[in-house]
Protein backbone atom coordinates (compact mmCIF):
# COMPACT_ATOMS: atom_id res chain seq x y z
CA UNK A 1 0.00 0.00 0.00
CA UNK A 2 1.37 3.45 -0.90
CA UNK A 3 0.77 5.36 2.33
CA UNK A 4 1.58 8.73 0.78
CA UNK A 5 -1.11 8.35 -1.86
CA UNK A 6 -3.71 7.13 0.65
CA UNK A 7 -2.99 10.22 2.77
CA UNK A 8 -3.28 12.32 -0.37
CA UNK A 9 -6.81 11.01 -0.97
CA UNK A 10 -7.72 11.91 2.62
CA UNK A 11 -6.26 15.40 2.28
CA UNK A 12 -8.10 15.99 -0.99
CA UNK A 13 -11.37 14.78 0.48
CA UNK A 14 -10.90 17.07 3.48
CA UNK A 15 -10.63 20.03 1.10
CA UNK A 16 -13.94 19.03 -0.46
CA UNK A 17 -15.63 18.70 2.95
CA UNK A 18 -14.42 22.13 4.00
CA UNK A 19 -15.62 23.60 0.70
CA UNK A 20 -19.06 22.06 1.11
CA UNK A 21 -19.36 23.24 4.69
CA UNK A 22 -18.28 26.78 3.82
CA UNK A 23 -20.81 26.99 0.99
CA UNK A 24 -23.65 25.11 2.60
CA UNK A 25 -26.33 27.52 1.39
CA UNK A 26 -25.28 27.73 -2.23
CA UNK A 27 -24.90 25.20 -5.02
CA UNK A 28 -21.38 23.92 -5.65
CA UNK A 29 -20.72 22.57 -9.13
CA UNK A 30 -19.32 19.11 -9.76
CA UNK A 31 -16.40 20.75 -11.55
CA UNK A 32 -15.54 22.88 -8.49
CA UNK A 33 -15.68 19.88 -6.17
CA UNK A 34 -13.60 17.70 -8.50
CA UNK A 35 -11.06 20.51 -8.90
CA UNK A 36 -10.71 20.81 -5.11
CA UNK A 37 -10.09 17.06 -4.91
CA UNK A 38 -7.73 17.00 -7.91
CA UNK A 39 -9.90 14.29 -9.45
CA UNK A 40 -11.64 14.12 -12.79
CA UNK A 41 -15.36 14.95 -12.67
CA UNK A 42 -15.95 11.50 -14.17
CA UNK A 43 -14.63 9.70 -11.08
CA UNK A 44 -15.25 12.27 -8.36
CA UNK A 45 -18.79 11.29 -7.34
CA UNK A 46 -17.92 7.60 -6.91
CA UNK A 47 -14.79 8.42 -4.92
CA UNK A 48 -16.73 10.77 -2.63
CA UNK A 49 -19.61 8.33 -2.11
CA UNK A 50 -17.27 5.42 -1.48
CA UNK A 51 -15.11 7.30 1.03
CA UNK A 52 -17.80 9.29 2.85
CA UNK A 53 -20.57 6.70 2.67
CA UNK A 54 -23.20 8.88 0.98
CA UNK A 55 -23.52 11.02 -2.16
CA UNK A 56 -22.65 14.72 -2.15
CA UNK A 57 -26.30 15.83 -2.22
CA UNK A 58 -27.20 13.59 0.73
CA UNK A 59 -24.18 14.83 2.67
CA UNK A 60 -25.23 18.46 2.09
CA UNK A 61 -28.81 17.74 3.15
CA UNK A 62 -27.58 16.04 6.31
CA UNK A 63 -25.37 18.99 7.24
CA UNK A 64 -28.25 21.40 6.70
CA UNK A 65 -30.51 19.27 8.90
CA UNK A 66 -27.86 19.06 11.59
CA UNK A 67 -27.50 22.84 11.54
CA UNK A 68 -31.29 23.12 11.74
CA UNK A 69 -31.33 20.84 14.77
CA UNK A 70 -28.76 23.04 16.48
CA UNK A 71 -30.81 26.14 15.66
CA UNK A 72 -33.93 24.49 17.10
CA UNK A 73 -32.11 23.52 20.26
CA UNK A 74 -30.30 26.80 20.88
CA UNK A 75 -32.76 29.54 19.92
CA UNK A 76 -36.31 30.67 19.38
CA UNK A 77 -36.13 31.23 15.62
CA UNK A 78 -39.44 30.23 13.95
CA UNK A 79 -39.46 26.69 12.54
CA UNK A 80 -40.58 28.00 9.15
CA UNK A 81 -37.52 30.27 8.92
CA UNK A 82 -35.24 27.39 9.86
CA UNK A 83 -36.92 25.19 7.25
CA UNK A 84 -36.36 27.77 4.51
CA UNK A 85 -32.72 28.24 5.54
CA UNK A 86 -32.26 24.46 5.28
CA UNK A 87 -33.49 24.51 1.69
CA UNK A 88 -37.05 23.27 2.18
CA UNK A 89 -39.91 25.11 0.53
CA UNK A 90 -42.52 24.20 3.12
CA UNK A 91 -42.83 23.47 6.81
CA UNK A 92 -44.34 20.06 5.95
CA UNK A 93 -41.42 18.97 3.76
CA UNK A 94 -38.93 20.05 6.43
CA UNK A 95 -40.85 18.20 9.13
CA UNK A 96 -40.84 14.96 7.11
CA UNK A 97 -37.09 15.19 6.44
CA UNK A 98 -36.28 16.14 10.02
CA UNK A 99 -38.34 13.30 11.47
CA UNK A 100 -36.67 10.81 9.10
CA UNK A 101 -33.25 12.00 10.29
CA UNK A 102 -33.87 12.47 14.00
CA UNK A 103 -36.91 10.34 14.78
CA UNK A 104 -39.20 13.17 15.90
CA UNK A 105 -40.73 16.41 14.66
CA UNK A 106 -38.88 19.73 14.90
CA UNK A 107 -41.36 20.95 17.53
CA UNK A 108 -40.86 17.88 19.71
CA UNK A 109 -37.10 18.21 19.35
CA UNK A 110 -37.24 21.87 20.42
CA UNK A 111 -39.39 21.03 23.46
CA UNK A 112 -36.90 18.42 24.65
CA UNK A 113 -34.04 20.88 24.18
CA UNK A 114 -35.91 23.54 26.16
CA UNK A 115 -36.45 21.01 28.95
CA UNK A 116 -32.71 20.45 29.15
CA UNK A 117 -32.62 16.95 27.63
CA UNK A 118 -28.91 16.13 27.39
CA UNK A 119 -29.47 13.13 25.14
CA UNK A 120 -29.99 15.42 22.13
CA UNK A 121 -26.27 15.66 21.49
CA UNK A 122 -26.22 11.93 20.85
CA UNK A 123 -29.05 12.27 18.34
CA UNK A 124 -26.89 14.33 16.01
CA UNK A 125 -25.30 12.07 13.44
CA UNK A 126 -21.54 12.51 12.99
CA UNK A 127 -20.67 14.80 10.10
CA UNK A 128 -17.15 13.60 9.48
CA UNK A 129 -16.82 10.43 7.39
CA UNK A 130 -15.97 7.26 9.26
CA UNK A 131 -15.03 4.77 6.51
CA UNK A 132 -12.12 6.48 4.76
CA UNK A 133 -10.03 4.09 2.70
CA UNK A 134 -11.74 0.83 3.60
CA UNK A 135 -10.37 -1.90 1.36
CA UNK A 136 -12.03 -5.15 2.40
CA UNK A 137 -13.54 -5.97 -1.01
CA UNK A 138 -12.02 -8.65 -3.24
CA UNK A 139 -10.31 -6.86 -6.12
CA UNK A 140 -7.02 -6.81 -8.02
CA UNK A 141 -5.02 -4.74 -10.47
CA UNK A 142 -4.77 -6.27 -13.93
CA UNK A 143 -3.11 -5.22 -17.15
CA UNK A 144 -5.27 -5.64 -20.23
CA UNK A 145 -4.46 -5.36 -23.93
CA UNK A 146 -6.34 -3.09 -26.29
CA UNK A 147 -9.44 -4.75 -27.69
CA UNK A 148 -11.20 -4.19 -31.00
CA UNK A 149 -14.98 -4.21 -30.61
CA UNK A 150 -18.14 -3.72 -32.62
CA UNK A 151 -20.69 -1.60 -30.78
CA UNK A 152 -24.06 0.10 -30.76
CA UNK A 153 -24.37 3.39 -28.89
CA UNK A 154 -27.24 3.84 -26.41
CA UNK A 155 -28.16 7.26 -25.01
CA UNK A 156 -30.52 7.21 -22.04
CA UNK A 157 -30.86 5.35 -18.73
CA UNK A 158 -28.59 2.33 -18.42
CA UNK A 159 -31.62 0.20 -17.59
CA UNK A 160 -32.96 0.81 -21.12
CA UNK A 161 -29.88 -0.39 -23.03
CA UNK A 162 -31.49 -3.71 -24.04
CA UNK A 163 -32.45 -2.42 -27.49
CA UNK A 164 -28.79 -1.63 -28.26
CA UNK A 165 -27.79 -5.20 -27.37
CA UNK A 166 -30.59 -6.61 -29.53
CA UNK A 167 -29.43 -4.57 -32.55
CA UNK A 168 -25.81 -5.57 -32.01
CA UNK A 169 -26.54 -9.28 -31.64
CA UNK A 170 -28.93 -9.26 -34.62
CA UNK A 171 -26.08 -7.84 -36.70
CA UNK A 172 -23.35 -10.09 -35.26
CA UNK A 173 -25.19 -13.43 -35.33
CA UNK A 174 -25.47 -13.90 -39.12
CA UNK A 175 -21.81 -12.87 -39.47
CA UNK A 176 -20.62 -15.62 -37.16
CA UNK A 177 -19.29 -13.19 -34.54
CA UNK A 178 -21.08 -14.72 -31.55
CA UNK A 179 -19.08 -17.64 -30.19
CA UNK A 180 -17.70 -19.08 -26.96
CA UNK A 181 -14.77 -16.64 -26.98
CA UNK A 182 -16.84 -13.53 -27.65
CA UNK A 183 -16.75 -11.02 -24.81
CA UNK A 184 -19.81 -8.87 -24.09
CA UNK A 185 -18.60 -5.52 -22.81
CA UNK A 186 -20.42 -2.39 -21.69
CA UNK A 187 -18.57 0.92 -21.98
CA UNK A 188 -20.00 3.31 -19.37
CA UNK A 189 -19.18 6.84 -20.50
CA UNK A 190 -21.16 8.66 -17.79
CA UNK A 191 -21.92 8.35 -14.09
CA UNK A 192 -25.73 8.12 -13.81
CA UNK A 193 -25.56 9.83 -10.40
CA UNK A 194 -24.29 13.05 -11.97
CA UNK A 195 -25.57 12.92 -15.57
CA UNK A 196 -29.22 13.56 -16.55
CA UNK A 197 -30.81 10.17 -17.38
CA UNK A 198 -31.58 11.14 -20.97
CA UNK A 199 -27.91 12.11 -21.57
CA UNK A 200 -26.19 8.99 -20.21
CA UNK A 201 -24.00 7.36 -22.89
CA UNK A 202 -23.35 3.62 -23.05
CA UNK A 203 -21.79 1.41 -25.72
CA UNK A 204 -22.96 -2.20 -26.03
CA UNK A 205 -19.88 -4.00 -27.38
CA UNK A 206 -18.67 -7.40 -28.50
CA UNK A 207 -15.08 -8.29 -29.27
CA UNK A 208 -14.61 -8.40 -33.04
CA UNK A 209 -11.92 -9.51 -35.51
CA UNK A 210 -9.82 -7.05 -37.49
CA UNK A 211 -11.97 -7.72 -40.57
CA UNK A 212 -15.12 -6.35 -38.88
CA UNK A 213 -16.24 -3.10 -40.50
CA UNK A 214 -18.80 -0.51 -39.34
CA UNK A 215 -22.26 -0.78 -40.87
CA UNK A 216 -25.24 1.46 -40.16
CA UNK A 217 -25.83 1.80 -36.42
CA UNK A 218 -23.03 -0.67 -35.71
CA UNK A 219 -19.67 1.01 -35.22
CA UNK A 220 -16.17 -0.31 -34.61
CA UNK A 221 -13.72 1.04 -32.07
CA UNK A 222 -10.66 0.04 -30.08
CA UNK A 223 -10.90 -0.07 -26.30
CA UNK A 224 -7.64 1.14 -24.81
CA UNK A 225 -5.61 -1.28 -22.75
CA UNK A 226 -3.52 -0.58 -19.67
CA UNK A 227 -3.87 -1.02 -15.94
CA UNK A 228 -7.33 -1.56 -14.48
CA UNK A 229 -8.75 -2.13 -11.01
CA UNK A 230 -10.86 -5.27 -11.33
CA UNK A 231 -13.59 -6.77 -9.18
CA UNK A 232 -16.58 -9.02 -9.87
CA UNK A 233 -20.04 -7.81 -8.92
CA UNK A 234 -22.58 -10.54 -8.20
CA UNK A 235 -26.25 -9.65 -8.29
CA UNK A 236 -28.66 -7.38 -10.17
CA UNK A 237 -27.26 -4.72 -12.45
CA UNK A 238 -29.17 -2.02 -10.57
CA UNK A 239 -26.88 -2.64 -7.57
CA UNK A 240 -23.68 -2.02 -9.52
CA UNK A 241 -23.31 1.52 -8.15
CA UNK A 242 -22.46 0.17 -4.68
CA UNK A 243 -19.63 -1.89 -6.17
CA UNK A 244 -18.31 1.10 -8.11
CA UNK A 245 -18.42 3.29 -5.00
CA UNK A 246 -16.48 0.75 -2.93
CA UNK A 247 -13.92 0.13 -5.68
CA UNK A 248 -13.33 3.81 -6.51
CA UNK A 249 -13.73 5.29 -3.05
CA UNK A 250 -12.19 2.61 -0.85
CA UNK A 251 -10.16 -0.09 -2.59
CA UNK A 252 -8.27 1.98 -5.20
CA UNK A 253 -7.17 4.68 -2.72
CA UNK A 254 -5.95 1.96 -0.37
CA UNK A 255 -3.70 0.65 -3.17
CA UNK A 256 -2.12 4.06 -3.67
CA UNK A 257 -3.28 4.30 -7.29
CA UNK A 258 -4.86 7.10 -9.29
CA UNK A 259 -7.79 6.66 -11.67
CA UNK A 260 -7.44 7.48 -15.33
CA UNK A 261 -9.97 9.81 -16.95
CA UNK A 262 -11.51 7.17 -19.19
CA UNK A 263 -14.75 5.17 -19.20
CA UNK A 264 -15.16 2.21 -16.89
CA UNK A 265 -15.86 -1.16 -18.50
CA UNK A 266 -18.28 -3.92 -17.58
CA UNK A 267 -17.71 -7.46 -18.88
CA UNK A 268 -20.87 -9.54 -18.59
CA UNK A 269 -19.90 -13.07 -17.55
CA UNK A 270 -23.42 -14.47 -17.92
CA UNK A 271 -26.67 -13.29 -19.48
CA UNK A 272 -29.87 -11.97 -17.86
CA UNK A 273 -32.10 -13.98 -20.19
CA UNK A 274 -30.79 -17.26 -18.71
CA UNK A 275 -29.62 -16.23 -15.24
CA UNK A 276 -31.60 -15.19 -12.13
CA UNK A 277 -30.79 -11.59 -11.14
CA UNK A 278 -29.07 -12.66 -7.91
CA UNK A 279 -26.67 -14.89 -9.86
CA UNK A 280 -25.60 -12.36 -12.50
CA UNK A 281 -21.83 -11.83 -12.56
CA UNK A 282 -20.29 -8.65 -13.92
CA UNK A 283 -16.59 -7.91 -14.15
CA UNK A 284 -16.12 -4.22 -13.27
CA UNK A 285 -12.97 -2.57 -14.65
CA UNK A 286 -11.90 0.96 -13.68
CA UNK A 287 -8.95 2.36 -15.68
CA UNK A 288 -5.86 3.42 -13.70
CA UNK A 289 -2.94 5.73 -14.40
CA UNK A 290 0.33 3.85 -14.93
CA UNK A 291 2.09 2.96 -11.69
CA UNK A 292 4.69 5.49 -10.61
Q: What are the salient characteristics of this protein?
A:
Arc Repressor Mutant, subunit A; 2 domains; Multidrug-efflux Transporter 1 Regulator Bmrr, Chain A; eight-stranded antiparallel sheet; alpha+beta; 8 strands; 10 helices; elongated
Word description of this protein:
The protein contains 10 helices and 8 strands. The protein has 292 residues and is of the alpha+beta class. It folds into 2 domains: 58-123, Arc Repressor Mutant, subunit A; 140-287, Multidrug-efflux Transporter 1 Regulator Bmrr, Chain A (Alpha-Beta Barrel). An 8-stranded antiparallel beta sheet has the order 1-6-8-7-3-4-2-5.
Per-chain topology:
Blueprint: H1 3-22, H2 30-37, H3 41-52, H4 56-74, H5 79-85, H6 91-102, H7 106-114, H8 120-123, E1 140-144, E2 147-155, H9 162-172, E3 184-188, E4 201-207, E5 219-223, E6 226-234, H10 240-254, E7 264-268, E8 281-287
Antiparallel strand pairs: 1-6, 2-4, 2-5, 3-4, 3-7, 6-8, 7-8
Helix pairs in contact: 1-2, 2-3, 3-10, 4-5, 4-7, 5-6
In short:
The protein has two domains: 66 residues, Homeodomain-like (Arc Repressor Mutant, subunit A, Orthogonal Bundle), CATH 1.10.10; 148 residues, Multidrug-efflux Transporter 1 Regulator Bmrr, Chain A (Alpha-Beta Barrel), CATH 3.20.80. Helix content is 40%, strand content 18%.
Task: Please give the largest β-sheet.
Answer: 8 strands, antiparallel
CATH topology of the largest domain: Multidrug-efflux Transporter 1 Regulator Bmrr, Chain A
| CATH superfamily heading of the largest domain | Regulatory factor, effector binding domain
Strand content: 15-25%
Helix content: 40-55%
C-alpha end-to-end distance: 13 Å
Tell me the domain tally.
2
The CATH class name of the largest domain reads: Alpha Beta
On the 0 to 100 scale, the average pLDDT is 88
- Rounded to the nearest angstrom, the radius of gyration is 23 Å
Give the SSE order as H and E letters.
HHHHHHHHEEHEEEEHEE
Shape: elongated
In what order do the strands lie side by side in the largest sheet? Answer: 1-6-8-7-3-4-2-5
What is the strand tally? 8
**Regions with little confidence, pLDDT below 50 for 5+ residues:** 121-130
**Number of helix segments?**
10
Which CATH-level-2 architecture of the largest domain? Alpha-Beta Barrel
Amino acid sequence: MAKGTVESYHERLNRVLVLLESRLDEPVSLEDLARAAHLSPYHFHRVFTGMVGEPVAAYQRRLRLQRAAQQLALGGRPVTDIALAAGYESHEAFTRAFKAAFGETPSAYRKRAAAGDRSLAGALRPVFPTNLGRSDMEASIVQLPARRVAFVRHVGPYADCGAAWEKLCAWAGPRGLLGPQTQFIGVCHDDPETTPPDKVRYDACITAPDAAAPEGEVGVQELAGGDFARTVHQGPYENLSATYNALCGQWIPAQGREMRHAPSLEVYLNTPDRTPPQDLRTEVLVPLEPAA
